[in-house]
Structures are given as structure tokens and as C-alpha cells.
Design brief:
By secondary structure, this protein is mainly α. It contains 5 helices and no strands. The chain has helices at residues 2-17, 21-117, 122-145, 154-187, 191-220. Helix 2 runs antiparallel to helix 3 (122-145) and helix 3 runs antiparallel to helix 4.
């Protein structure tokens, strides 16, 4: 029994002073994990973070580009609408000038018709012609001074400048036609009438040219033309 007891004591001592091989192995694995796995995990995490940042930066840039495109489109649309308004205002001004002379033209036409059938004397016809001539001179000057908006595209501005030049010339020519009628009323020479017809035809041609250029300007800025019967 004494020998047995000594033996167990020795075994116990050996057990006490012998390292636990399993624990040592575990510690060794942990050290290896720290040396290899942890850096890999950290790198993977860094890669994920970097990719996320790249994705976020890309999304921000795309959003910025999209916003810029939207703002550009809005600005272009606004400019188009402003161009339409500007051309319509020019057209409105041109037609307003024509409306100013209409009563004088109608008065002249009635007076000449009355002179033809004997219901109007030559003095009334002469006065009506003078008023028509003065009105044509006024409208000619107003067309020459008619403003063309500066913010319009270059080609549209060119069209409207040519339109107002044509219309101004048309009423200058019409004024000359009325001057001829006054001469006719003075001396009754038939030769004046052929010259009068030439001036009126020339005036009508310039009016048509001016109106056509206004229509071309409207089309150029995207105004849809409505056909009238």
C-alpha cells in the first residue's frame, strides 16, 4: 500500500507539472489565427468599406449629373417658352400697327368710291388721301423702330429684323402710292394710275414678305401654327 501510495503521488506530480497539451495547442491556434485570419478579416472589412464608399460616391456623382441635366432641361424649356412669348409679342406689336392704319385706309377707300359715284366731292377725297398718306408715314416709322428682343436666338432675331424692315418698306411704298393719288387728284393725269398700281403691288409684296418672316420665326421657336379658314 505504501508503494502504491508513492506511485500515485508521483503520477499526480507528473500530471501537475506536465503542460496541458490540448490547452497549448489551443493557444497555438489562437496565435496563428491572430497572425493570419484576423488581418484577412480586417482587409475584407476594409474592402467592403471601400466598395461602399466608392458606390456612395458614384451614386452622389450620378445624382449630381442627373440634377445638372434636369436643371439644364428646365432652363432650356424656360428659354423656349420665353422665346415663344417674345416672338408673339413682336407679332402682336406688328399687327397693332396695322390696326392703327386700318381706319384711315377704310376712310380713303370709301372716299374714292364716293368720288367715283359722285357721292363725295374731290376735296373730301383729297383730305381722306392725305390722312391715309400721313398714317402710312407714321406706321412706316413705327415699324422701323419696332424692337426685336435681344434674348432670342440669332436666326430668329434675323427673321424678325428682316420682317420689320420689309413691313417698314411696305408702308413707305404705300405712302408713296398715296402721294401719287394726290397728284392724280391735282392734275387728273392717267399716267399716275399705272404708277400707283406699281407702288401698291410693291407694297403688298413687302407686306407678304414681312408676314412670312414672322411666321417663320414662330415656327423656329416651336409655335404651332393654326390654320384658319
Amino acid at each position: 500500500m505504501k508503494i502504491v501510495g508513492v506511485t500515485w503521488s508521483v503520477i499526480a506530480l507528473i500530471i501537475a507539472i506536465t503542460p496541458n497539451s490540448t490547452e497549448e495547442k489551443s493557444l497555438t491556434i489562437t496565435a496563428e489565427a491572430e497572425a493570419t485570419i484576423v488581418p484577412a478579416v480586417k482587409q475584407e472589412l476594409k474592402t467592403v468599406v471601400d466598395e461602399k464608399k466608392i458606390k456612395e460616391d458614384k451614386e452622389k456623382e450620378e445624382a449630381k449629373i442627373k440634377l445638372a441635366a434636369e436643371n439644364k432641361a428646365k432652363a432650356e424649356q424656360k428659354a423656349k417658352e420665353e422665346n415663344k412669348v417674345a416672338v408673339l409679342e413682336f407679332e402682336k406689336g406688328a399687327y397693332a400697327l396695322e390696326d392703327e392704319i386700318k381706319p384711315f385706309i377704310e376712310y380713303y377707300q370709301k372716299a374714292m368710291a364716293g368720288l367715283g359715284d359722285g357721292s363725295v366731292d374731290i376735296f373730301t377725297a383729297y383730305e381722306a388721301t392725305e390722312k391715309a398718306r400721313d398714317a402710312a408715314k407714321y406706321v412706316q416709322s413705327e415699324f422701323y423702330s419696332l424692337a426685336v428682343p435681344e434674348n432670342l436666338p440669332k436666326d430668329v432675331k434675323k427673321m424678325l429684323n428682316e420682317a420689320k424692315s420689309d413691313l417698314s418698306t411696305a408702308y413707305y411704298t404705300k405712302k408713296e402710292a398715296f402721294e401719287i393719288i394726290l397728284k392724280f387728284l391735282d392734275d387728273q393725269k392717267p399716267s399716275h394710275m399705272s404708277k400707283f398700281k406699281e407702288e401698291i403691288q410693291l407694297s403688298d409684296a413687302f407686306v407678304m414678305s414681312g408676314v412670312t418672316k414672322i411666321l417663320e420665326a414662330k415656327i423656329a421657336v416651336g409655335i404651332e401654327l393654326v390654320e384658319t379658314e
